[in-house]
Design brief:
There is one protein chain. This protein is an alpha/beta fold. It folds into two domains: about 200 residues, Vaccinia Virus protein VP39 (Rossmann fold, 3-Layer(aba) Sandwich); about 90 residues, DNA polymerase, domain 1 (Orthogonal Bundle). About 45% of the residues lie in helices and about 15% in strands. It has 13 helices and seven strands. It has a seven-stranded mixed sheet with strand order 3-2-1-4-5-7-6, sandwiched between helices. The longest helix is centred in the C-terminal third of the chain and has 16 residues. It starts with about 30 loop residues before the first helix and ends with a strand.
Length: about 325
Amino acid sequence: MRSAQAYIGALAIMDAPQPDSRIPYHRPAMLAEVLDLLAPRRGERAVDLTTGTGGHALALSEQLGSDGLLVGIDADQQALSVARQRLTEAARSPFQLFHCRFSDAGEAVGQAGVEGFDVALADLGVGTHQLDDPARGFAFDSQSRLDMRFDTSEGTTAWDVVNRTSEQELADIFFTFGEERYSRQIAAAICRRRSREPIDTPMQLAELIKGVVARRSSRRTWRIHPATRVAMAIRIAVNDELGQLDALLDALPALLAHGGRAALITYHSIEARRVKQAWLEQQRQGILEIITKHVVKPSDEEVRENPRVRSAQLRAARKP
């Protein structure tokens, strides 16, 4: 077994980046509910498929103890470097971390030498360290270049999507991934604007969308920012989130040992439907057994303390 200081995968141990002290720790969502459903025990093997800055991972490690093993996976290399430091300082179990996406989780697990996990967790929300870092290009008030990639080392950026995608494709992205009712009007406005000059920042994009919605809607105040759905749609497209989720749902049963438990936290209806439908089909086939008869939602107290979890839904399943 590798030591608790190991950091494996796409990054060599010697090349593991030092964590940025400015990155805030992401508060783990629905932690008590996750631990209750997964019931991790001493000596078990757990995989946190969205390790982030290590909040859930540390809690799992506490339950696994020195006889257990924690494997962490994340597409965000910056967050993973923070998790590495936190786990090195405080983990109660040996751990291994891998920089990869869901579609590569099987290969990472192969490197870890685990044939089946007793516990698996994926929290599909965007991390505080991503939302609150202006340089990542998620926040509406950011004046940095549009980015929105979870893995900043490669791939198409939000700037590419906004400034290089055809009007029809943009409208399809906004409607399909964001369920945005003004998708065509917003896509047309973006194309008119970028014909004069590029749309470089989240702030520029958000103000443009706000103007379109204000002209189309009789409302002048909104519960959420008018650009929320479009920003979510762009982020989903940039990171191929639904394709990656499908890859995870396909791979998850094989990652679990018999009797292994899995929990997934979703934050919008498109994700939730995919998880629900996939697990119902896998249950019909006898591959998984759903153990949450109804979705579990965060407590009122947690929502007051951390409003970003207000739309979270937790589901859990077990491998027979």
